Amino acid sequence: MFLKQIDLTGALRPTFVSDDEDLLFVQDNVGLYEGKYKLPNHQNGQIYLTSHRICYVDKAEPRKHSVALDLKDVERFEFYGGFLKSSAKVTLIPKPTKRASLQPRSPVPAGSPSRSSTSSPAQHQDGSLRVSQAENTPISSATWVCTICSFSNPVPSNFDPTTANVHTPLPPCLACGIKPSLTHVLKAAISSATSRQPNGPVLQTPLPVRPRPGAELSAGPEPARDSSPRSSDPDASFQCPRCTFLNHPSLLSCEICGAPLISRDLPAELLPQTRTHTESPGPVLHALSPVAPGAENPECVKISFRGGGEKIFYERLKGAMTQRKWLLQGAPPIPKASRPGESPVNGAAAGTAMSASTTNPASQTRPKIGGIAGLEHHSQAMRKNNELVIGSAFEDLEALMASAKEVVALADSFARQVKGASNASENALLADSVSQLGLVATKDIVGSSSGAGGSDSLYLSELSRTLAEFLTDDRRGVLRKAGGIMSLVDLWAVFNRARGGVELVSPADFKKAAALWEKLGLPVRLRTFKSGVKVVQSRDRTDETTIKALLAWLRDLHEFPPDREVPWDWRRFGRGVTARDVAERFGWSIGVAEEELEMAEEKGVLCREEGIEGLKFWENFIDTGEGNGFKDLSREHAEKVVKRLTDAGFL
Amino acid sequence: MTTSPPNDPSSSSSSSSSPFSFPPEYSFPPFFTRQTNLTTHHAQLTKWSSLVLAYCRHYRIFKLSLSGNPTTTTNADAPVGGGGGEGGAEPDTTELFHNRRINRRLSLADIREVIDFLRRDGRAEYVSGAAPSGGGAEGGGGDLVWIYWRTPEEWASLVESWVDATGQRGSVLTVYELVEGEGTRGSEFHGLNQELLLKALNVLVKRGKAQIFGQEDSLGVKFF
């Protein structure tokens, strides 16, 4: 499925897939279409655009009907501006190759480890192949060499030299982050296209396919393709394109080298006849186009923006698709470019290994040096590498962005090194918090809404959810450390500090967001004490539980003798406690303790004693419910009335 | 004959020799702090009132000095006879509002609140003549307070039933006789504060059951 069910956090926001996933945009009041039809149960929700995915979270039944699609599965996306009653839409067209070729096989998730671990070119090729056929410009393996760092980048799959112009978005260099000039990429694309020109006509003949039931296609080996020749015999084994090992046809990846065994070209070649009638852009392309563009594709997904925000969404989506952050997963590209004598794959591995500071496979290629010399050599190499990384990272902003992950990792490791000296517990906590605050809602990632001031409310609800997540996150345990309750002001301070001094939240917004918890059904609640102090606590903590805890403690004090002699009968009355005692005992702040005590007093559970030692609270032995004396008096009063009546002769 | 005085004299006279046993909350420190919670506060007032009444009943205190000055309460009746202070020395009424053992004391404002609570119930009244300073504040500023652990009406009916029981209807008795006379020894109102007795007798007068005549210190009462 193009659309996948997703997990939600406690605050009903999508969970991360990977650490470097960034939230780019949020918009509410959207609906989903599949093909031409509305998807039932997906008609009113919020759309989250992250650097990796597009997530739809349903408003009515978020746990049930929330879906996401990976951007890496997106072939193309189109924008439709809306007309009259039809609202603006963004159409996402999936990459059909994978889906179709995988269909007869077991449905392996697109991001399965075996595939994502193979370096980006393989994946890229994977996606670009179809395009090359669709547009008759076989740029599949076209690469352009960065003029800055001489890293050879793949030409983007959606780059079409025939239509490219100055406004065509070009991806920056994967290694150094410098944007290439259009002509540069154009040249690369054309040169690769011309080198393949002779093969052009063959494309129309069916390519060799994986043995597949019902597919009676046979073709000779295709020398121009990098995919290996395959026999048409259904029983034949499947040759790995990388290591040429003959695998069993039902295997998904090569047994020897782990390369993916996918017949990418299968559907493209199988389907053309059935799909000739399309609204394709031009007749020439149309004749050659094996796969119709989106409109007729049954699985294309449309996002309908009923509340506006489509333009920003489209812009951000464009950016995300250009950046293709998901390609960066795991392998920081910079060192591999700057290290000569290593294959890219090894370089990538070394890169990861470096950041994780473990033994790297690349060390096998080095001359073996043992003992202390080896260690020294190793650390020297590491230092050099670090130097290189930092030096190149700060050269310019783009490069810094590209290597942000690495620099952060380095900074972390430096921080760890100095930790021993300083009391870094708080710093570590803060740094931790910052890195964990990934999916933060800021004002500019939230789309505009239909009504006036509507965008504000979306921002607030997002902030509210972020806060709830922040509070309930077990890793941080903000609320737990504060004894399950903390004042709103404290939370505000902690939260803003955790944001690392950027994107600070104003107190007014913060208060409004906190007020939304109840409405959004989040697991925390805002409580206002009688004095007006606002506190935050988890939903399951009610006054009753607090009182129970307080009383249990006070009853305990009947059992344990007080620290010093007291004149009263402590076995009977226990002893009084100050707000300080309570704060100490329950881990609350003093203000909160005071409020809780007063709340309990308000309920009649506690009573107060003002003395030279300050205000103390006791179990309530004054109002024990019997109210004897008063009843006696009232009874006597009644008797008096009766007597008077008697005296007056009425009785 | 509708009231139930017969069992009272024995109980009060027998217990007056022993020290008053305070209720448990008397040694509960928060009892001496004004509670802010309304229900708790009401319960506190109720408990204080019953404590004050019980205390005064025990020591047969009719007039209570709020500042705890014992002389004002006793100079009226103590020298006259042993009725009130049977144990010799008059009890120190300061202990009522001041628990020395736990070193807690009810503030004067809070005491007044208790007294007001009693007044609303008809169980207390500021002594009007003794507190000229409090005249402006509706008698609220006085130091001396009548504590009606029996209201004048109740005293009146006690006297009336005694008169009935002893067959003295129609006869004339002096007030002194009623309070200190041999005939009333053993009855509840023996040793009653004279002023209070007059209040009670006035109740009877209003009902038409008695008539008061005579001058200042030689008052006579005739019962019908």
TrEMBL record, chain A:
Which terms does the UniProt entry file under GO BP? protein transport to vacuole involved in ubiquitin-dependent protein catabolic process via the multivesicular body sorting pathway
Q: What subunit structure does UniProt give?
A: Component of the endosomal sorting complex required for transport II (ESCRT-II).
Q: What is its main location?
A: cytoplasm
The UniProt family comment states: Belongs to the VPS36 family.
PANTHER family, alphabetically? VACUOLAR PROTEIN-SORTING-ASSOCIATED PROTEIN 36 (PTHR13128:SF12)
Name assigned to this protein: Vacuolar protein-sorting-associated protein 36
Tell me the InterPro entries matching this sequence: GLUE_dom, PH-like_dom_sf, Snf8/Vps36, Vps36, Vps36-NZF-N, WH-like_DNA-bd_sf, WH_DNA-bd_sf, Znf_RanBP2
User: Is the Zinc keyword given for this protein?
Assistant: yes
Q: Which UniProt keywords apply?
A: Coiled coil, Cytoplasm, Endosome, Metal-binding, Protein transport, Transport, Zinc, Zinc-finger
Where is this protein localized, as stated in its record? Cytoplasm; Endosome
- From what organism does this protein derive? Corynascus novoguineensis
Domain of life where this protein originates: Eukaryota
Q: Which Pfam families match?
A: EAP30 (PF04157), Vps36-NZF-N (PF16988), Vps36_ESCRT-II (PF11605)
UniProtKB/TrEMBL annotation, chain B:
Segments for region (Disordered): 1-21, 70-95
Q: May I have one GO cellular component term?
A: ESCRT II complex
Indicate the segments annotated as coiled coil, or none if absent. Answer: none
Q: Name one GO biological process term.
A: macroautophagy
A Pfam family that the UniProt record links to this protein: ESCRT-II
Q: Does the keyword Protein transport apply?
A: yes
Q: Which InterPro entries match?
A: ESCRT-II_cplx_Vps25-sub, ESCRT-II_cplx_Vps25-sub_N, WH-like_DNA-bd_sf, WH_DNA-bd_sf
- Per the record, where are the segments of Low complexity compositional bias? 9-21
Which keywords does UniProt give here? Protein transport, Transport
> Which molecular-function annotation in GO is an example for this chain?
protein homodimerization activity
Q: Which family does it belong to?
A: Belongs to the VPS25 family.
**Listed name of the protein:** ESCRT-II complex subunit VPS25
Provide the species name: Corynascus novoguineensis
Q: What is the lineage of its organism?
A: Eukaryota, Fungi, Dikarya, Ascomycota, Pezizomycotina
